[in-house]
Design a protein that fits this description.
Layout: E1 12-13, E2 24-29, E3 32-40, E4 45-52, E5 55-56, E6 60-63, E7 75-76
Antiparallel strand pairs: 1-7, 2-3, 3-4, 4-5, 4-6
Length: 77
């Protein structure tokens, strides 16, 4: 699948109960990831960054204050 400017990619998931975190990686291969999206329920943050040539970029953290942010709820990414 090729993404172009203006395209959207939507995901709706429900993590397993008791899940501490999960990751969604979108990229060309395991060494080149355009988007690493990693919600961490146990620390109530979302980690986002990218990977180029096996090297991760600067981490962007976002604290989550929404009480619906839990493994038992559907999430839209």
């Amino acid at each position: 699948m090729t993404f172009k400017e203006g395209h959207e990619f939507k995901i709706r998931i429900k993590p397993n109960d008791g899940c501490c975190s999960f990751a969604i990686n979108i990229g060309h291969d395991p060494e080149n990831i355009a988007l690493h999206f990693n919600p961490r329920f146990d620390s109530e943050v979302i980690v986002c960054n990218s990977l180029s040539g096996g090297i991760f970029s600067k981490i962007h953290l976002r604290a989550v204050t929404d009480r619906n942010f839990s493994p038992s709820q559907f999430l839209r990414v």
